[in-house]
Amino acid sequence: MTVKHEAHDRSRDLQVNPVFSREPLRVPRYQLPAGEMEPATAYQVVHDELMLDGNARQNLATFVSTWAEPEARRLMDECAEKNMIDKDEYPQTAELEARCVHMLAHLWHAEDPRHAMGCSTTGSSEAAMLGGLALKRRWQHRRRAEGRPTDRPNLVMGSNVQICWEKFADYFEVEPRYVPMEGDHFHLTPDRAVEWCDENTIGVVAVLGSTFDGSYEPVADICAALDDLQARTGVDVPVHVDGASGAMIAPFLDLDLRWDFRLPRVASINTSGHKYGLVMPGVGWALWRDREALPDDLVFHVNYLGGDMPTFALNFSRPGAQVVAQYYNFLRLGFDGYRRVQQTCRDVATRLSGEIARLGPFELITDGSDIPVFAFRVRDGERRFSVFDVSAALRERGWQAPAYTFPENRTDLAVLRVVVRVDFSHDLADLLLEDLRRALSRLETQDAPRRGAEAGGFAHGAETRNPRRPGRR
């Protein structure tokens, strides 16, 4: 993407203080310097500018890990130069990737974890696109075998899906069918999913942990409704579970929840290793229940150490360090360690949401009891400030809390969202509450809201779908 700068900005060279170098320097902002500079000088110039970034520990918006143990960081440093795609040159890194796939397959109850199909990706967005691409190709193969046209594939999903699904539909020419929110239903429901399916539906996306409010979609009920659809009409629609966050929460905290490969209709699952997988960005994972779910014509086969290593990815060169860190976390924490980490995150989220609800002006949409994420709104009748005012006030203290409106049919609902990660402790939650109380004491003196969605609110993963996208019902 090309960034345009005003003409006067281009002329504003960086002024480097003499304390950082032997002579004062002028460094061009938007073109290569004519010559070299001392490493320490270059470092200081970059370091000083980056001080203006937000504090990652106070980022309540991002789902992405902002902390890692020193040993994990050390391993990542040791593997920084390893290219994940060069499996013949870095065979042990490839082996660790395969072990992670098998561990996830076991965690998600694949019938044969040792032979499950899966791969690492740069993140859950790429993994989701791979899942969607496999759904499309399977549908095309079946339709051709039946002598039927393949020119109008569609994908059914709630309007609360992450923006990567809109990208998938656009890039791979699939009609996106976004089931709108209705009333207090903020995610996909079984009856609505079935209503939007037909013979051209390549699959239904069920989200385990909505970015809008942190809630689980009812995957088992959606699958049951699709089972009934097939029994009545013969239309067979598989399910992809977007478990970007929840697929690393539910296996440890919600053991009785049926959402994974225990459900025969679930064909594939994606998750983000750099979210609740606890790895620094960026690594994701895509898994398929068996070989039939991943058409072989999408898989490239690499020979390494005399064996076959199948690969399926949109990106080519990418770092192996995050895959190594994922394997480290799996070894380091094990099942019980992940359970304790995720339970602590959920405990912080539910306690914090309860305290916010008791402040008075706010009403909870969710409480953090699914993934450790919750959303809350300003109560009806409160006319002095908006969620956008609250977001801006918290930012004055360094807290980045996204404020946004919900999608089509519920654009009247504006909320704040809080993501609790492993590095957000009960103590930090108390500090946030203190700052929120302090902000309220000032906001409650206003006679009307000062800010709206257009005044700097940011959604961070809860972007509203494009209502003008062609093919929308």
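The above is record 1. Record 2 follows with the same two-line structure.
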Amino acid sequence: MYSFVIILLTGVFLTLFFRPSMTEVVYGGSYGPLRGVRMSEAYASTLHLSFDVRGGLLMRQIHHWATVIFLGSIVVHLLRNFFTGAFRKPRELNWLIGIVLFMLVMVNGLFGYSLPDDLLSGTGLRILEGVLLSLPLVGSYAQMFLFGGEFPGELIVPRLYVIHILLIPGILLALIPLHAVVLTWRQTHTQFPGKGSSNTTVRGYPFFPVFVAKTGAFFLWVFGVTALLAAFFQINPVWLFGPYDPGAISSGSQPDWYMGWLEGSLRMMPAWEVTAFGHTLPLSVIIPAVVVPGVLFTGLAAYPFLERWATGDRAIHHLLDRPRDVPVRTGIGAAGIVFYGVLWLAGGNDVIAHRFSIPLFWTTWFFRVAFLLGPVLAYAIAYRFCLGLQQRDRALLEHGVETGVIRRSLDGGYSEVERPLTAAEAAPLTDERPPAAVPVARPERLGVPAPEARRRLARVRAALNRRFTADLGHGPNGNGDARRRELEAAAPDQEG
């Protein structure tokens, strides 16, 4: 949210000097290497803004860095909500709004760095045109609708400009307050389990003056870091790329990080094509640029409902899960991170090959294999980590915390002194809270399954449910209320 405010403020400044026109002019500004070169007004005005407007380059870079931070913040926020189960009832709508925000900001970032009409951004637009043309039946119509004619045409920059500064920001201005403020006020804040937290109470400080003071300080921190990055770390130096030329491409062209995973998806895909009914389907573009993003975003949007179906959990949750307590969800999240990360790394396979002096085909095949095996290994490893952390929690409950004090017995043996957990320390492990999953099928009787478990879909649901409930850290098979009562009876509160 803080980055979005910075983007809006710097964007207003940039609109005063940028000219969204593809009319050709001869550059006569202060940047010597391009003086006398024919280019679009969009590119010439970007050079003018960078070299001849006081503070213009700083504003451009603040705007770009704020966008990078904005998208990074969205990803971190999304991962936090996923791993802690914050998407569950009653917050499914808020989760869906967050996914829509993520997609809109990605698209707006792509359109934003395409506006200067330099060689790098033109390369990205060329890829976008190829993706549109690959769509069956409607591809050529979509391409003509967006570009207004054959690529590159003269309308794409003005159209992207309107979408970038008016259409998508207007939608964001409506969705961000709804996502961050209105729904939060209606649904209350989530909180981690611990002493004093419950599913029916909310702990925190008042909005005014505490939250207002904290959020003001956080905004200043974000603005300060963004300004430092813009002042000392160059980003998107369009003057080095030159004006866009449809017949040229710069070596080592790389998009911003949030579009790198789509670039990697395109680079990894084999050159497959299918011809049917007189039409050619370029699977080498459709699968990586349409199917893969569709699977990712559809999976993210549908996951809360799929998990509710598999777990049978329809309770209201205001308490978050610790990731270790729900190994299946944590494993799925780790697999998704590796899925995204492999695609992102593959977007720089040529740079990696050049930097480490290895054949390009080696890097391509490595990422193809990693794309298939990486998520599976990530799921298994994350699952085992969760089980290990649960075992450590049980050991702490049973034996206490190591103090580092060693005692020697009369017979010469050594033992370490352990102290019991205080009530506050044990609360995240033992306090009551709604389970993350409940059994959805009655057990078999005399080898005969229950009626609701005989259909094929019901058997799939029952199998997923058994997998999900097998190793819950807090629930049907985890640290339960009995252990909490034992602790309360055996040891007094040592919080003081």
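The first helix runs from residue 2 to 15.
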